[in-house]
Amino acid sequence: MPGSKIHELFYKQLKRKLSPEMTVALPDYDNYSIFAQGHDLLIFYDYWKLWKLNQHIQESLWLQEDHFQEFIYQYLIQAKRNGQLNQEQIFLFIGPGYIAHHILDSYLHPLIIFYAGDHIRDASNETWKHGKIETLLDVYFTQYFEHRQCTDYKVYEDFPRTDLLIDPALITVLDDTLFRVYGIQSGGSKFKKGIWQTRHFIHLCKYDPHGYKKRFFSVFDHISKGSAALSYAVEPNDAVPYMNLQHHRWTNPKNKGIGSTQSMLELYDLAMEESASICKELYQLMICGDFTKDEVYAIIPDRSSSYGLPCSK
């Protein structure tokens, strides 16, 4: 499953990068940190229905890999048609939430996949190393920024049930946009349900103060590949081998011609700067209420969140 905590941290820190005008105009910003889960909300949606998991993963992959610019543009178009373009939730979901999630993934995922050798769970994998690394990063960044471990407090409380506060207008905009761009039926309702199910998943599978779940999942990992990667009962320093703190050269898993020596922390900071810039420009565009497709595309990069390369479609 995705690295949920690191996205929640990113959302909270992004607020400090926004303009004073924006923070005043967004009084409920702190109440909607769950929006930081972005397209991963489609994976958390009905996550216990294992017979539907592949379908939910596929829908999430469409959002990760395809039509990123067009999705944002159509979202704005639908919000404008419904007279909701200046509504706070409409901006918080798409800007600091969805877009920032996508941007952070586009920076971190190439290095994670470089180390892991995989992205999604596959029957040929010995285990789901990608998931293992993302869990380690959650724990490492929580210790790094908040000076506490995910087993020392009720970490699931960082994921509030804001589905109870969601304006129906946001669901309508998401329903229309997801169907127009990806053909996903009732996408807004899936996102809304995924919000409270994220908290449920963190509580049930990842919050593990005594390490019992880690031992339980390890027993069944050979059957359900990757389940051993879920528990937060790991040490922050276990993430160090995947942080590239020594600045060794690594290459993009999909394009070996693209290389870097940047660490995970440096990539996080770069994602923060770009996300803040996008959110500021997008906010002004939405306040103005008059925009063209070219103007939106000029703000939103054509970039997949898996490999940081141009979208496949």
Protein architecture, described:
- 55% of the residues lie in helices and 3% in strands.
- It has 313 residues and is mainly alpha-helical.
- Strand 1 (250-252) and strand 2 (255-260) form a beta hairpin.
- Helix 1 packs parallel to helix 7 (129-146) and helix 5 (68-81) crosses helix 8.
- The radius of gyration is 19 Å and the shape is globular.
- The protein starts with a helix and ends in a 14-residue tail after the last helix.
- The model has no long low-confidence stretch (mean pLDDT 90).
Short description:
The protein has 313 residues and is mainly alpha-helical. 55% of the residues lie in helices and 3% in strands.
Number of helices: 12
Structural class: mainly alpha
- The radius of gyration over CA amounts to 19 Å
Tell me how many strands there are.
2
Query: What order do the SSEs take from the amino end to the carboxyl end, as H and E?
Result: HHHHHHHHHHEEHH
Major β-sheet strand ordering: 1-2
Query: Which bin fits the share of residues in helices?
Result: 40-55%
β-strand percent reads: under 5%
- Give the oligomer, counting copies of the same chain as homo and different chains as hetero: single chain
Structure characteristics:
globular; mainly alpha; two-stranded antiparallel sheet; 12 helices; single chain; 313 residues; 3% strand
Describe how the helices and strands are arranged:
Blueprint: H1 4-14, H2 20-25, H3 41-44, H4 53-65, H5 68-81, H6 88-116, H7 129-146, H8 168-182, H9 187-206, H10 212-220, E1 250-252, E2 255-260, H11 264-288, H12 293-299
Antiparallel strand pairs: 1-2
